[in-house]
Amino acid sequence: PFSETGVIAHDGRLWWLALAYSVFFCDPCTPQFESPQLRFIPLPDDCEMEGDVGFDPRIRTLIDQRRCVRPSEGKLRFVEIRGLSYDDLVDLPAANPTVRMWTLDDPEGPDAWTFEYEVAFAEIWENKTYTDAGLLPDEVPHVALIDPNDHYVVYFFQGSKLFGLDMREKNVVA
């Protein structure tokens, strides 16, 4: 029931994404006389949500807008927008929203995720390329995907616009 946000195939395995809690994976091509073993990987520290939030459709929508796991440069990456409330019934202002990314380096090890970077939207909004692209500063976009060839480029939606941000340069690149 926690795999509500999708399944992807990567690195010869199937990955079930439960973006409120964890990632599950297995190798469906195990030898004929062995059963595939479903394995569990918790999200990085401080990312696992409390309670049964994954079952609330309103909160699931917010999770899908703020979190993403996708392959990039041959590894799975987890990106998250922080600093926003997951209570859609309360209109709270963003508290210094940021984009954070981790890489799944060792799915079978004790420290599966490696922290990559954190970038504040305030720094992105200050970049001239943001407003030149017709994007509204102070409006946090939704995560769309991670560039498959460059994990520093994350794509977002703002209204009907899809755009790519280079997190190193903090500018719009696509």
What is the makeup of the main sheet?
A: 4 strands, antiparallel
User: Taking Cα atoms only, what radius of gyration do you get, to the nearest Å?
Assistant: 17 Å
Strand numbers in spatial order across the main sheet: 1-2-3-4
The overall pLDDT average reads 87
* Record field, number of beta strands: 12
Poorly predicted regions are: none
Per DSSP, what share of the residues sits in E-state strands of 2 or more residues?
35-45%
Helical element count?
3
Task: Compute the separation of the termini in Å.
Answer: 36 Å
Helix content: 10-25%
Shape: globular
One letter per element, helices H and strands E, the order comes to EEEEHEEEEHHEEEE
Question: What class, by secondary structure content?
Answer: mainly beta
How does this structure look, described?
- The model has no long low-confidence stretch (mean pLDDT 87).
- The chain is mainly β.
- The protein has helices at residues 57-66, 121-126, 128-132; strands at 7-10, 13-18, 22-26, 39-42, 67-72, 75-82, 98-104, 113-120, 142-146, 153-158, 161-166, 171-172.
- The protein is 12% helix and 39% strand.
- Strand 5 and strand 6 form a beta hairpin.
Keywords, please?
four-stranded antiparallel beta sheet, globular, 3 helices, 174 residues, mainly beta, 12% helix, single chain
Set down the secondary structure blueprint.
Layout: E1 7-10, E2 13-18, E3 22-26, E4 39-42, H1 57-66, E5 67-72, E6 75-82, E7 98-104, E8 113-120, H2 121-126, H3 128-132, E9 142-146, E10 153-158, E11 161-166, E12 171-172
Antiparallel strand pairs: 1-2, 2-3, 3-4, 5-6, 6-7, 7-8, 9-10, 10-11, 11-12
